[in-house]
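hey m, so remember when u said the tokens were messed up on ur end? i reran from scratch. heres the input so u can diff it against urs
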Amino acid sequence: FAFGLHEVYGVDVLVSTGDGTNKEKDAKTVIFKKTDMTYMLKMKTSREFLSQVTKTYGTMPFNLRNFEEEKKARMGVVECVKHQVIQPFHVLYEKEGTSVAQFKFTVLLMPNGPQKITGLPFDAALYKSEKAVEDQEILTLLKQSANPKACQEEKKAAEKAVSEETGEKKVEKVEDMDAAPTLVEQ
């Protein structure tokens, strides 16, 4: 997969101290989002609900409590969810005693580097992790820019920074064997 300039990505990060298996419990779902699916709804309340969602929210998430007639909205959403016209955002649970954190943000890949345009600010200095990225190739990739022009220069700088951090020396590959120095005189 290749990232390109001027592309937009939504990043959804979910971290857990448990084993990572989420479960749905008996909590009521109140957050929904309209999908691109179409279906001829049978109930009048469902059609009115979907019409109001389309006019007011478009494809953005919404809360059922925001509707004037919440009871009608609860009736209308059932048929919409059944036919996948509306997507529910269920409350997910982990095992008892574990912590779960989720954050979402939107990133633009611009020539001067990635720009986070939505989401809360993240200060990495405030958090410590027991885990770390150990793969040299991934560490080098994380330190590079998305700009293809700056990429060549920054790739060398990133490789140098990674090798200094890990204390390893990189062995250069020789493309042309005739250009390689001979070890034994002939």
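this time it looks ok to me. Strands lie at 8-16, 23-24, 31-34, 62-63, 86-88, 92-93, 100-110, 113-118. if urs says something different then somethings off w ur setup not the seq
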